[in-house]
Automatic annotation (TrEMBL):
It comes from Thermocrinis ruber. GO terms for molecular function: manganese ion binding; metalloaminopeptidase activity. Keywords: Aminopeptidase, Cytoplasm, Hydrolase, Manganese, Metal-binding, Protease. Presumably involved in the processing and regular turnover of intracellular proteins. Catalyzes the removal of unsubstituted N-terminal amino acids from various peptides. Its EC number is 3.4.11.1, 3.4.11.10. This is Probable cytosol aminopeptidase. Residues 331-338 form the Cytosol aminopeptidase domain. One of its GO terms (cellular component) is cytoplasm. Its cofactor is Mn(2+). The keyword Cell inner membrane does not apply. Pfam families: Peptidase_M17 (PF00883), Peptidase_M17_N (PF02789). It is found in: Cytoplasm. Its main location: cytoplasm. The keyword S-adenosyl-L-methionine does not apply.
C-alpha cells in the first residue's frame, strides 16, 4: 500500500472519502462543503455519532455521480489519543476493503502533526493486512487497497509509519507461517536474506557450533527434533560512532509440542506462533536498518523445535548453560526459557547498555493479564517505566509485574542444579522471568516482555487481523527513536 500526503479539495477527490470524527466535535465534516447537510441527514438516519470503534458507510448522489463516504469514530475529544486515530483508520480501511475499494482519501483535520499522521499511516497499512497466502482464490477476487491519500499528512510521519507498519506486517507473515514452512534452518535463511537486503551483519551457528560454544541449553531443547537448532546473530551498525550498543533477544521456537511433557491437542494448536519473539526481533532489525538509527543494535535468536523423540531432553536432566550455570529440567514444556538462557548469556557477553527480550513465554501471564496485555519484568523499574510510557502511544499494552518476591524466587532454587526451569503453577510468569534474570550479567539493564497473550489473536479487531499480530515491534522501535534520535 502506498500512503501519500495530499492537498486535494473535496471536489477533486475521485475515490471514496474517509472522515475521522470525534464524538462531540463534528467540525471535520466542514471539509465536505456543500455535501455537508446531506451527510448530516444520512448520519442521523444511520444513528452515527462518532463513538469510538464505530463506522458508517454513506452513499450520496450528486450531479449523476455516486459519492461514497466512510465515517470512523474517534470517541470523545478529551479522551481521544494517538491510538484512536490508528484504530479508526484501520476500521475504515477494513470496511472499504470488503467493498473492494482500491483507493481511499482520509481526512482527519486541517493540522495533522507527525505522530498523528504516523498513526493514521500505520492504521491504514495494518488494517489492510490479511494472511491468505494459502487460500485458493480467483484473480478477480484479489482486491487490494493500493493507495491511501492523507489530507495534509506530515511527510516524515508517513515515512516512519510505513516503515514500522510494513515491518510489523513482515513479522505477522513470518509468525503465521506453519511449522512445515518455517523451522530453525529456514528461519536462519530468512535472517540471512534480511541481512543481505538491508546491509546487516549476520552470523548463523549450526548444531555443532552451538555445542562448541557451550550453548547446551539451546542444544538440549532442539535435539529431539529431526531439524537441528540454529543460533542467529544479526548486527546493525550506523554510519559514524554509535551512540550506544543495545540488544534485542527473541524466543524462536518454530514449533512447540511440549516435548516429552507433551501438550494436549487444543494447546498444541497454533504453536507455530511460539516463534513470535524471534520474528519480532527480525522485524525490529529491518525497521532499524531502514530508519538508519544512530545506535548499534544486535538481534539474537535461539531457534529450535521442541519435539518428543528418543533423543529429546527429559525431566530430571541437568544441563549447563553458556554462562556456566546448571539448569534442572522440571518440565520439558517450559522450554522457551531454557533456550533464552543461552541467548541472554550470549547477549550479555556483547556488553550492551541494555537488553530487551521478547517471548511467548507463559500461559500464566495470560491468566494474570488477559490476552491483550504483555507482562513486563525488569531488573531496573525506571527502564520498564520508559517502555510503558512509549507503549501508551503505540497502543501496545504493557503491565509491569513484581520481581521482588523472595519466596517465589526460592521455588526455582530448590532443585539439584543452580536453577529449576519451572517454579510451579502459581506466579508462573514471575518465576519464569526470575529464571531468565539468572542469565543476564549484573550491571546490564534488562526487560523481559512476555507476549504470550497479545502475540496471536483468534479474532480480528481494530488494526489486528486474525492470527499473528507483530506485537511489541512498534514499541521497541519507537523507544529507540525517542532515546537516540
Amino acid at each position: 500500500m502506498e500512503v501519500l500526503s495530499t492537498l486535494k479539495n473535496v471536489e477533486d477527490v475521485q475515490c471514496p472519502i474517509a472522515i475521522l470524527l470525534y464524538e462531540d466535535d463534528q467540525s471535520n465534516l466542514n471539509f465536505l462543503k456543500d455535501l455537508l447537510q446531506d451527510v448530516k441527514l444520512l448520519m442521523s438516519a444511520e444513528n452515527f455519532k462518532g463513538k469510538e470503534g464505530s463506522t458508517a458507510k454513506l452513499n450520496l448522489l450528486r450531479d449523476g455521480k455516486v459519492i461514497t463516504l466512510y465515517l470512523a469514530g474517534l470517541g470523545p475529544k478529551e479522551k481521544a489519543h494517538i491510538d484512536s486515530f490508528r484504530r479508526a483508520t484501520a476500521l475504515v480501511v477494513k470496511r472499504a476493503k470488503k467493498d473492494k475499494v482500491q483507493s481511499l482519501f482520509v481526512y482527519a483535520g486541517e493540522n495533522l502533526d507527525e505522530k498523528t499522521t504516523q498513526a493514521i499511516t500505520e492504521g491504514a497499512i495494518l488494517g489492510d493486512y490479511r494472511f491468505d497466502k494459502y487460500k485458493t482464490q480467483k484473480e478477480e477476487e484479489k482486491v487490494e487497497i493500493s493507495k491511501v491519500e492523507v489530507y495534509k499528512g506530515d511527510e516524515r510521519g508517513i515515512r516512519i509509519g510505513q516503515i514500522l507498519a510494513n515491518a510489523q506486517r513482515f513479522v505477522r507473515d513470518l509468525v503465521n507461517e506453519p511449522g512445515n514452512v518455517i523451522n530453525p534452518i529456514t528461519l536462519a535463511e530468512i535472517a540471512q536474506k534480511l541481512a543481505q537486503e538491508h546491509g546487516l551483519e549476520c552470523k548463523v551457528y549450526d548444531e555443532k557450533q552451538i555445542q562448541e560454544m557451550g550453548m547446551l541449553a539451546l542444544w538440549s531443547v532442539g535435539k529431539g527434533s529431526a531439524t537441528p537448532p540454529r543460533f542467529i546473530h544479526l548486527t546493525y551498525k550506523p554510519e559514524g560512532e554509535p551512540k550506544d550498543r543495545v540488544v534485542f533477544v527473541g524466543k524462536g521456537l518454530t514449533f512447540d509440542s511440549g516435548g516429552l511433557n507433551i501438550k494436549t491437542g487444543d494447546y498444541m494448536r497454533t504453536m507455530k506462533m511460539d516463534k513470535a519473539g524471534a520474528c519480532t526481533v527480525l522485524g525490529i532489525m529491518k525497521a532499524v536498518a531502514q530508519l538508519k538509527l544512530p545506535v548499534e543494535v544486535h538481534g539474537i535468536i535461539g531457534a529450535a523445535e521442541n519435539m518428543p523423540s528418543g533423543t529429546a531432553y527429559r525431566p530430571d536432566d541437568i544441563i549447563r548453560a553458556m554462562n556456566g550455570k546448571t539448569i534442572e529440567i522440571d518440565n520439558t514444556d517450559a522450554e522457551g526459557r531454557v533456550t533464552l538462557a543461552d541467548a541472554l548469556s550470549y547477549a550479555s557477553n556483547l556488553e550492551p547498555s541494555w537488553i530487551i527480550d521478547l517471548a511467548t513465554l507463559t500461559g500464566a501471564c495470560i491468566v494474570a493479564l488477559g490476552e491483550y496485555t504483555a507482562g513486563l519484568f525488569t531488573n531496573d523499574p525506571a527502564f520498564g517505566e520508559e517502555l510503558i510510557k512509549v507503549s501508551k502511544r503505540t497502543g501496545e499494552r504493557l503491565w509491569m509485574l513484581p520481581m521482588d518476591d523472595k519466596k517465589l524466587r526460592e521455588k526455582i532454587k530448590k532443585g539439584d542444579g543452580d536453577v529449576l526451569n519451572s517454579g510451579g503453577r502459581y506466579g508462573g510468569a514471575i518465576t519464569a522471568a526470575m529464571f531468565l534474570e539468572e542469565f543476564v550479567k549484573e550491571g546490564i539493564k534488562w526487560v523481559h516482555l512476555d507476549i504470550a497473550g497479545p502475540a496471536y489473536f483468534k479474532e480480528e479487531f481494530d488494526y489486528y487481523s486474525k492470527g499473528a499480530t507483530g506485537f511489541g515491534l512498534r514499541t521497541c522501535v519507537e523507544y529507540l527513536m525517542e532515546k537516540y534520535q
